[in-house]
Write a structure and sequence with these properties.
single chain; 580 residues; alpha/beta; Ubiquitin-like (UB roll); Alpha-Beta Plaits; Rossmann fold; 3 domains; five-stranded mixed β-sheet; 19 helices; 19 strands; 34% helix; 14% strand; globular
Length: 580
Amino acid sequence: MSDTQMVNLKINNIPVEVPKGTKILAAAKKIGINIPHLCFHEDQRIKAYCRICSVEVVGKKRLLAACSTNVWEGMEVYTDTPIVRDTQVALLQLMLANHNKDCLSCPRNQNCDLQELCSRFNVLESNLPSVVRTKPRIKTNPSIVREPSKCIRCGRCIRACKDIQGIAALTFCNRSSEIRVTTAYKRPMETTDCILCGQCSLVCPTGAIVERDETDAVLDALQNPKKHVIVQVAPAVRVALGDAFGMKPGEIVTGKMVQALRLLGFDKVFDTNFGADLTIMEEGSEFLYRLKNNGVFPMITSCSPGWVNYLEKNYSDFKEHLSTAKSPMSMFGAIAKTYYPEKVGIDVKDIVTVSIMPCTAKKFEAARPEMGRDGMRDVDIVLTTRELIKLIKYVGISFNELPESEFDSPLGTGSGAGAIFGTTGGVMEAALRTVYEKFTGQTLPRIEFEDVRGFNGIKEAEVDLGERKVKVAIAHTLKNAKILMEDVKKGKSPYDFIEIMACPGGCIGGGGQPIGTTYAIKQKRMEALYEIDKNLPIRKSHENPDIITLYNEFLGEPLSEKAHHLLHTHYHKVEPLYSF
């Protein structure tokens, strides 16, 4: 029997029973009433800034915020009285008076919370004089674009940066009508502690913070008959893309996604899971090399560009702990610009490599000078999941009606280990499957490593390799990464191998995923990736036949001279551009 104390109340004269401590907003949702809100986000702590969720409660002289007010026994709530509606309309008009209303050209057009509420309340224009200060978009880095004149001061971005990532690159400044969201000293985001993870863009209700759009560059390449345009798609994209087309959260749309990319005009559609398997071969071999040669421990994964940016800015004295292996995207790009053109007989200068990633920081990674050679980038263009959605809609593809299609060869075969790269703990599990068998020479008795799975902020496990027990840790979000790194800094880390992902949940919760991504949705995506892994015929990276062929024909063996040249890199200390 549950000990939860229940509370009975009425909302718009409809009886409802909810646990004690429930907010009015949640109680109303239980009976199908969607109280409007803007600053509220179900994955963030309550702010009660915008007051759009104001409701009338019998016995109270003023309206109460539904997002922050607990229900009580016998409470009577009204969400649709004249005073409530007048208040909500007045607040929307105030926002519009100080909002850049170029909706038709806004990246968030038809996917904007403010626009949706204005339509809902039939607020077509503000009755108040405009006080908006139109400023140009801030485009100083490859990943994030800011447009301050579209900010509604809801504070969601600040909470994502501070509470989730523990960084606080964004903050409020000034007071009253002059309040603004900005960076310290109004510096460009990339020169602050910001690591370009894009979590701010994922929770922004308007177009104030968005990804840097490169869809036009992809269209130009696709329409150029002289270019051979290939695309790779990250594992987390295939379990998130369906959200934008009315499918259930976490629905696996791999086949439809591949067909959509063919219809867009890509010459070849490849799988980043191939790059993930290649990463495991190199990173796993690097870990074994460190084990046998008393290397630097703990070794830390380097697949997450936001995490790499964070280490370079905050723990650069410990960069030798970072694996030198490039990320799956960058490894794939290197092979696509070397092995692939030799294999198919195409001049590398005619190849355009496009990556579809769940991550805004991948745009920054692709632009790093060490991610290329001979004056060419390995990955020419990075699109987020959101940008792929734009392309599909732009071309007019009926996504839900598409037939299934398969990835192309030779870079389209991926294992189940590659698929789970998209979730926190997945890189570690994939690595352990290969490390165990390579170190012991024995087949794993059980392929699943349950201890590294799940949404706990920090997870740990111990793996018995016979001669050696290996202790591993997994962290997602940089707030948790800091906890592990402080132990490394103090020389007290008990771990041999650490996986860190910058975004909550890993890539399934990346900053470039569809708007509306929540913890509950990330849970469904995680389950879907493990389902993909379970159903694939190959579940270990070292058993991928295309990977075996690549080493036989081109690379030689993991950690070979050629592999080091193409698939490994080194990271740097990042000095601030400004000092105060």
